[in-house]
Records
---
Amino acid sequence: MFLAKIIYMGAIAYLDTSIFNCPQCNTVYAEASWYAVVLAADIECGNCHSTFNPSEYLTDRIMVEFHLDDMGKVKEIKKVG
Ligand SMILES: [Zn+2]
């Protein structure tokens, strides 16, 4: 019997992340950019429940690296660049 084993040692996963704030109460959020910017869908603020489009209130957009151990668990997070 052959068991496939995935080797994660040294693997890095990436997440394009958008930072924005609610225009009504200024609560800040970090969200995946594919959701916050690419889809351009309105979201509801978890604090004041107003609805807005995050792409209009971006303060930053960064790439985040997740450095994984040999079991695929995150051991370190870094900002790219
Ligand atoms: Zn709000």
---
Amino acid sequence: MAIDSTGIVLEIQRMSTEDGPGIRTTVFMKGCPLKCVWCHNPESINPKPQVQWIGARCIGCKTCVQACPNGALTFDDGIHINRTVCKGCGRCTEVCPSTAMELLGKQWSADALVQELLKDSAYFGTSGGGVTISGGESTFQAHFVKKVLVELKHHGIHTAIDTCGICNQHTLDMLLPHVDLVLYDLKEMDPLKHQQFTGKSNYRVLNNIKYILSFMKEHLFPREVWIRTPLIPGKTARDENIVAIAHEINNLLSINPKVITRWDLCAFNNLCKDKYTRLGLEWELAHTPLLTKEELSHFEALAKQHCNNPAIVKTSGSTRIEDDEAPVTKPKKKLGC
Ligand code: SF4
Ligand code: SF4
């Protein structure tokens, strides 16, 4: 089988209402070129399969320790994974009697994945939904993703890619003809801060969104772009950043006025705290509080004030619990946005 006929998929999430119009099935691919400090899916950054240990499920039998062919596991107060020698083979997950060892990332053939996604066609048809390829980064395994998108379009399925904008233009040329909607992250306009928060400058991000809009003007496809901005307290959630992104969107609207149909301000959430722990990682934002409702409203008003098309501004995500108010929580969503 050709190497690009298979891809590593982290998760298939059904019934999503966050990643495009209608009811969608979102495919989270493994691999991302960025390391955003607020990343909500840290298990998606590494392109290879990884194992994680869920302590609450472990019965301490040590079967995994004996089964590991690479001596990567030890047990004292719990299982410790030596990630420098773990090869992600998944043997430990196969022998664990209590599902305490989990493999993150599974190899799929493009054909098998498409067949799996087509099981949800009835939902797509009735809701105006479809399939969104997310991650990680949707363009990271581009040849595989193209095969999946082409097949989905043959079956008349609405397709979306969710991208951080870090890829080359050849990759965009390859994918865009098979995509209805692009979910595009504009996280931070200051190049140095973008580098500091994500590990890379925003130079390519800003060039690629212009390229996508020019491509759309010429080919009339993809049909729509939704811009997504994560509102991270102490990081991207600053007045000057939101105003600068609004001005950038105004410039983009002047290239191709009708195709940017939505600008999502995605409020920070910290539901992913345990994921970092399971991967043996420290998370800088583990104790960062959510935005208050007032702060979220403030950024929404600011965005509407400075965007030439305020109707496209939307907000999503959780805000801080105050008094006896119930939290507004959303299901898994890449917080790239
Ligand atoms: S095999 Fe599973 S239950 Fe047994 S020690 Fe390993 S992780 Fe724990
Ligand atoms: S994935 Fe393979 S190499 Fe890694 S700990 Fe499990 S058995 Fe060992």
---
Amino acid sequence: MTSTSSDDCISCGRATQSGTSLFSDRRTTRLEDGTVLHLCGDCNERAISHFGRRPGQRDMVQIAARGAGLGLGGGHGGMGAGGGQGG
Ligand SMILES: [Zn+2]
């Protein structure tokens, strides 16, 4: 048994399960093998900015596989914008 939670955001790792502040805005996709991926609202917006559209299932898989590699991790990553997007 592992302790991996399937309700964590695939990008930033924050819990998105029912009852959390991230639950209402999270984006969920279900893969053919039954794997369920969740993307929190913040990361979903970053993904839209990154892809130029709403992330589809394949994009979600890519985010899950590469994580912060897409620069979606948020926080103090610093994309050089220097501007706070508040929130
Ligand atoms: Zn997230």
